[in-house]
Specification:
globular; 2 strands; single chain; 5 helices; two-stranded parallel ribbon; mainly alpha
Amino acid sequence: MASVAERVCSGLGALVEVLRADRTFDAVSIWEVAIRNGLGLQDFFVDPQVLRQNLLEADSSESSITDAHAARVDFLPAAHKDPFDRILVAHAQV
């Protein structure tokens, strides 16, 4: 079984790849980084404010989560249980 740190790093890597391809980010992505940063893991430190600033400087745009995204969560398979993951997937689908 993967450690928490391995899962966090894996999840963050996937998030960064999505952000690179899409060139957009949302509050949920920054929020999840802030929460994971707050866990105090020794091998994870990403300042969410610096991340946001770097994304903006790299010409990424901030995309809002809307009611359409929230409604789309209802159609996701049961495999997506984490609320952050659910809204991120729904946001990508919409």
